[in-house]
Amino acid sequence: MLIKEATTEDWAAIWPFLHRICAEGETFSYPTDITPEQGRAFWMLSAPGRTIVAVDESGTVLGTAKMNPNQMGNAAHVSSASFMVDPEHSGRGVGRALCEEALRWAAAEGYRAMQFNAVVESNTPAVKLYESLGFEVIGTVPEGFRHPRLGYVGLHIMHRPL
Fold first, then answer.
1. What is the pTM for the complete model shown?
2. Least C-beta-crowded within 10 Å: which of 89, 108, 126, 150?
3. Which residues of 101-112 are buried (b: 16+ CB within 10 A; e: fewer)?
């Protein structure tokens, strides 16, 4: 697996699984009826943000991540990131590789911590992955996410110093 900067050409491979994940409405707070234009604006970041893809030996996009300052101004020393793995390629370590790269990048850029503002409590694989990489749940917004099957569930705020 290779992690590389996302290009405009990669968007055509990202959009189908980003759209599917958003439409399912179980793990992201993006609109379930997200348009390609909205998706591109939310996901394909320019500096100081960054968007990457994980590709296999054939060049197939397996997953993607975006990373950026969590806030502006005097809070811009804390980074954030989001990850999407094509469901067709889950269970292959793609999410871990993307998260490790986001952490490496954030440290190299001088950020002091990484914080995720909205990890859906019922997204157990993501929560376990982040915890295995040193993140802690520092708070939970009760019923902060309306899950299509489970009803209202919590949204974790997760943090890790760098």
1. 0.95
2. 108
3. bbbebbeeeebe
**What are the tens digits of pLDDT across the range 12-34?**
999 999 999 999 999 999 999 99
Which residues are CB-contacts of 6 (< 8 A; sequence separation ≥ 6)? 14, 44, 51, 52, 53, 64
- Output helix, strand, coil percentages for the chain, rounded to the nearest 5: 35, 35, 30
List, in order of start, the domains of the chain with CATH numbers: 2-161 (3.40.630.30)
| Model confidence pLDDT, tens digit, residues 110-138 | 999 999 999 999 999 999 999 999 999 99
At 148, list the tokens.
């299509």
Which DSSP category does 48 fall into? T
- In 3D space, the residue among 119, 124, 137, 109 whose CA is nearest the CA of residue 83 turns out to be 119
C-alpha pair distances (Å), 121 with each of 5, 68, 70, 137: 29, 22, 20, 10
